[in-house]
Amino acid sequence: MPWFSVEADAIPEAQIQAAARRLISEARARIAPKLQRVLLLPPDLTRAHSGAGKVTEWIYREVMAQEPAAHVRVIPTLGQHQPHTAAENRWMFGSIPNDIILPHDWRQGVRRVGTIPAAMVRETTGGVANWEIPVDLNTTLMDEPWDLIVNIGHVVPHEVLGFANHNKNYFIGLGGKETICASHIAAAVYGIENNLGCLVTPLRACFNHAEEAMLRELPDVYFQIVLGRDPHNQLVTSGVYVGDDLETYLQAARRSRQLNITTFKQPIKKVVAVMQADEFRATWVANKAVYRTRMAIADGGELLIIAPGVERFGEQPEVEALIRKYGYKGTPRTLALYKTEADMQAIPHGVAHLIHGSSEGRFRITYAPGHLTRSEIEQVGYDYADAAEMQRRYSPAAMHDGWNTMPDGEEVYYISTPSAGLWATEAKLANASRRELVHT
Fold it and tell me: pLDDT tens across 198-252, in order?
């Protein structure tokens, strides 16, 4: 069971800060009375809107107030995303000194700690994936002695693990290339729409096994945040869950499923989604707009993504090259190429991304990026729109989340923060192929 939790329609910031202080107090009683070496594992800046950066800063300050000589390190759980700049660290983590915020190196900064057997992957995925998943994790996490490790993050519907956070922080956020590649392609072939919004997906079940088998000795605790919306449709913190077991995650995920999934009886003809410029600079992360709305969009419909900060496709040069070469052009084509093309086989997580980012020809995806050209967007299989023009037509000052009727009569469903939820028809959520691997 969780150490403690807080739920409300809108939890005041002072109460969230009190929960951060209580975590340290509880950790001293439950894990280590002297917190001389503390590791904080927050999300990266693509989750900044959750407030996890502030929580990380509050926990850091509380540790230093109680142990002024403590050795504290912060590792944003980047996975293979670009490391933060010093300015981005200040923006997200406030007063935490930049020199104690370490970048995760998914290629050279990891070591093998075990393997998830192919038999488990095969069983959980119903046979569609049949390979083992090597578990390579950050060496600072695994090889240095820690009195306390605090995972901080946002629990929200997720395309690979059903819901984000919890041990995703370890196996993806601090994982190595082989771990990230093998796990992402397994989730992709199982099917993105079979994962989204499920409490325990096949990959989550595999990671739960790995955490129990390989990380049991870590002195860790989770601080999990769930967001909701207030009467003015503004994002607010509606749940905080602190604990060190699976039930802590399940309680947070159930709360997120209650608050963060919007359902429709009929599919939507047109969705307009906005990806904030200060968080989303590549389609690799901005495509959350595709993932989180695809189950709501009608056949023949359109998703317009207004992404003024997008300047590239991938987070790494080889992924950038892969996306530009093959594009988001459907699962059958992508998997057929994966069987023969060496550059695809070298980075399977990139192949998974190509699958996730395609509408499978079912609806049109139109991108309005700030820094990519029409030819670049059309080359990868999307339609193009001018970002400035789309920002004028669908101005944030005039639009509100939900249904909007434009002056010319066009009806659109507007989403200001697609990464904060999941939108789906009731029929899609009820699909029998969406198996839960845990009692709900």
Answer: 999 999 999 999 999 999 999 999 999 999 999 988 899 999 999 999 999 999 9
Structure tokens at 270: 């047109």
Where does residue 38 rank: exposed (0-12), middle (13-18), buried (19+ CB within 10 A)?
Answer: buried
In angstroms, rounded to a whole number, what is the distance separating the alpha carbons of residues 360 and 328?
A: 9
Rounded to the nearest 5°, which phi and psi values hold at 411?
-110, 125
The sheet that has 71-74: what strands, in order across it? 4-7, 235-243, 220-229, 148-154, 37-41, 71-74
DSSP per residue over 9-23, as a string? SS--HHHHHHHHHHH
**Judging by beta carbons within 10 Å of its beta carbon (0-12, 13-18, 19+), is residue 342 exposed, middle or buried?**
exposed
Per DSSP, the three-state class of 227 is strand
Cα separation, 31 vs 89, whole angstroms: 29
Map tokens 């956020």 to a residue.
173
The pLDDT, as a whole number, for residue 433 is 83
Long-range contacts formed by 386-395: CB under 8 A, 24+ apart: 387/306, 387/307, 387/308, 390/304, 390/306, 391/306, 391/308, 394/272, 394/274, 394/304, 394/306
DSSP helix/strand/coil, 356 = helix
pLDDT of residue 440: 39
Neighbours of 97 (CB within 10 A): 11
pLDDT tens digits for range 376-422: 999 999 999 999 999 999 999 999 999 999 999 999 999 999 999 99
Compute the distance between CA of residue 19 and CA of residue 59 in angstroms, rounded to an integer. 9
Contacts of 364 (CB under 8 A, 6+ apart): 300, 301, 302, 303, 383
> Stretch 181-195: mean pLDDT, rounded?
96
Taken in order of first residue, the domains within the chain and their CATH numbers are: 4-261 (3.40.50.11440), 265-429 (3.90.226.30)
**With DSSP H G I counted as helix, E B as strand and the rest as coil, what are the percentages for the chain, rounded to 5?**
40, 25, 35
DSSP code string of 31-52: T-S---EEEEE---GGGGGGTH
CB within 8 A of 372, min separation 6: which ones? 310, 311, 312, 313
Helices 348-356 and 317-326 pack at an angle, to 10 degrees, of: 50
Bridge pairing between strands 162-163 and 220-229: unpaired
Pairwise CA distance, residues 8 & 358, whole Å: 37
Residue 9's CB is within 10 A of a number of other CB atoms, namely 11
**Looking at residue 438, what is its pLDDT?**
67
Residue 56 has pLDDT above 80, yes or no: yes
Integer Cα distance of 142 and 215 in angstroms: 9
Question: At 437, is the pLDDT very low, low, confident or very high (cuts 50, 70, 90)?
Answer: confident
